[in-house]
Amino acid sequence: MRNIVHTLLVLGLSASPLMAKDLTVITAGDQNMVDYINQYLGPLFESRNPGVTVRAVGTGPGDAGSQKVTERFDAQTQAKVEQWDVDVAVVHEKFVGPMVEKGQLEKYRGKIASGSLVTRENAKMALGTKVDGYVMPMFNSQTALAYNPALVANPPKSYEELVAWAKKNPKQFGYNGIKGGASGVSFVMGWIYAFAGDGDKLMNGPYEEAEAEKWKPAFAKLKEFSATATLTPGNAGTLDMLSRGEIAIGPVWVDMFYSWKADGRLPPEMKLVLPSPGMPGQPMHYVVPAKAANKELAEKFVELATSPEVQAKGIVERFNWYPGIDAQHVQAKLDPKVWQKLFTDIGPEDLAKNGKSFPIAPYNKALLEAYERQVGN
Amino acid sequence: MPQHLLGLMLVTPALAIVVLLFLVPLASSISGAFEVAGTVGLGNFAKAFELYGNDMAFTVVIVLSSTVLIGLGSIAISGYLTLGSNPRAVAILRWLYRWPLFVPFIVVGQVLRTFLAKNGLMNSMLIESGLLTASQTMSFLDWRGIIIAFTWKQTPFVTLLLAGAMASLDRSMIESARNLGASRPRILVEIILPQVMPTLMVGLILGVVTMMSVLSVPMMINAQTPTMITASMAFRINAYGDYGVANALGFVSLAMTSTVAWVYLRQTMRDQR
Amino acid sequence: MRSLALDPRWIPRALGLGLLAFVIFGPLTNLLLWAVAERWYFPHALPLKYGFTYWVNVFSPRGNATGALVNSVVIAGLTVVISIGLAVPAGYALARLRLPLRGVILLMLLVPQAFPNLPVYVNIARIFYQFGLNGTVLGVVLVHASHGLVYAVWIATAAFSALDKELEEAARSLGASALRTFVDVTLPLAAPGLLASAVFVFLESLDEFTGTYFVGAPDVSTLPLLLYTAGAGGNYQIASITALILLVPSIAFMLVIERFLRADVLSKVGR
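^ inputs. structure came back:
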């Protein structure tokens, strides 16, 4: 028994965080986020900062991934840890507001060179909470309808057209409800923007509880629509069924769509369309905990990650993601052909007009719960 | 030393680990379930039953049917392993049945999602072999998929335990029954099964407990509502940051498993007296 | 020796075994195919292109699969040692000694599996941060052990209760001490059950990722942790490869246990 205790102690100690020059980056999102840091950003940062090792930890895709980052922060806050074990975190938009409110984050944007390259509204407000200065967007993502041109010759350009199309082609439209990830949630929010009026109020506030009454007919219509649709298991589940031809069209995250294509899990002919009046998108944000052990290094890391070069080569060219910092800075660093690839299916005007944001947090919750009551049950 | 004192001493270390590392942290979750806006109340439970009542019923049905299938499957396999007359067939079966045991749940979700789908590998194999035509295929990615996944993964678990228990039985009674001309199914049901019943029950209860807490299988296989309690719990936390209702759901799930376990424990304790 | 082809009883046997093989290996074929598939989509029933680029990714120095594998095995091994070490006395006491509140104790041990532990990990992580256990192998092992004990204690209790008391009583009446009787008679008889529970504890530890993330990451990285992101996000190739790598220690452990078991049962029990 003594031997075991001894071994445990040795192992326990040797694995403790003693090596000061480890920069720990914890990221929500898909495998490709971990790969991006491990294969591209990490080595690049290490080559410019000798002696530093970048460690990436993935917490899993979707809200669940960001929730795990939140919980880790909460645990360290409650335990009153002085030096946190996370230097940089990448989380979804929805989760930065509460983190800022709990005082867990460093206000660092003003301190880094690339900080002034972001002017977009979603770097200042996150679902109704002021986060200006605390976040740098890694990339902007968008949901859209992915479809197989072999099965859908004329893709629906609006929610109205989609409803008509789905009626003619039962079970050929698929979405993942709201429990299986944000692409389904996004489809539902877009539905409300389309059929229940005041999208601007939902996206910008102010919050009024009475608003919920207006959604009822739209949800009733969605319930009817869902009966002719196929329900898919999760964000990946929608892509999965698209890839096997079990559904012809469905809402997906644009970034996931491109990774699935790149990994050979989707037919290369697949295309995207962004129906009017629009579907939500959101940025993934870099945040630095106020008590990060290597705060300066962390800021340097985000500075590199959001520099025009890295945004051009890493985010746009490598992954086909929409850049986090303002477009003109990134466009200047790229071959026009590469830049155009971003807009192969969805043109810049469509994106500007139909790329919406999610409703502010209280509406978001109210809408999800209304869906659970009126459509899900 | 009085016997029960010695007994407590022997149990304490194991109990201490579970109490300190799980029950203490759990306590604040449980109390959170009964807390509504700072005061004690049942609001979380009311909401949990209102929104997720169907999920609770669904969970019970899924877990019970899976358990029945797992029980039957493991009795059949371990029975053949014990009574099979052909050593080669027994050896093949022994080699065969265990594989799913080694596949983590999250991968079970993945492989079955791509296997059971309408255009998945299973249907393609059946079409290639001429057993089905393309128009006859259907998807199993609903409640059936969850039951299939649980049965697939958990049957070897129970079988391993059960076959072990059967192997350590006294063979002489089985041999004499065979000599009297009893059929093998009859020996299995009337002689072997009663003796290994405690092991079977323990295996099945551990199976129930595992199924109740697995998240990846319902998340990756079941597309429809209702879904399993764990999936709703995760949704409550991830979408709303609402630990109150999530913990209330956890409490309901705990109550369900405890009831099953308690019924069993009562039974065995009565038998011992 | 009769020839196989002539024995008609092989027809139902072959049918049954064939069906079972399809049920078990069908899904596993999927796993194998995805591990080497580079391109696979509708309407192709089989992958369009095979290759090993994803293997190169997983095993690249930064992918860190090798280190994570070693960590996973060490953690699973230690978890088995702790769980079984604690379960043997506990199981014996629960099965054989008249214990007050026996049912309650068994029920308490069941809770870590019975309460879906998502909301509990935040609390565990908070406590572990306070004690400096976060980011240590010991912390991860303890969390895994609290789950493994469910299997270990319940199975050990069943194994000890199933034993025939007469053998022990015979040994005692021949003058063997209580401890001696336990080690020489009781333990070998209960060995099959105990070793089976060791297999489950090992597999449970190799399967666990949520606890490892909260208590171990970023300092302790295990293979299931890598697997989770890939698996949940639908990165079939990476997930399949990781799962295949995980098969190696699982099966190796099983074989070791089995060899041990056979020798043990044969030599000591003498049946």
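The mean pLDDT of chain B is 88. The two ends of chain B are 23 Å apart (CA to CA).
thumbs up if we can close this ticket
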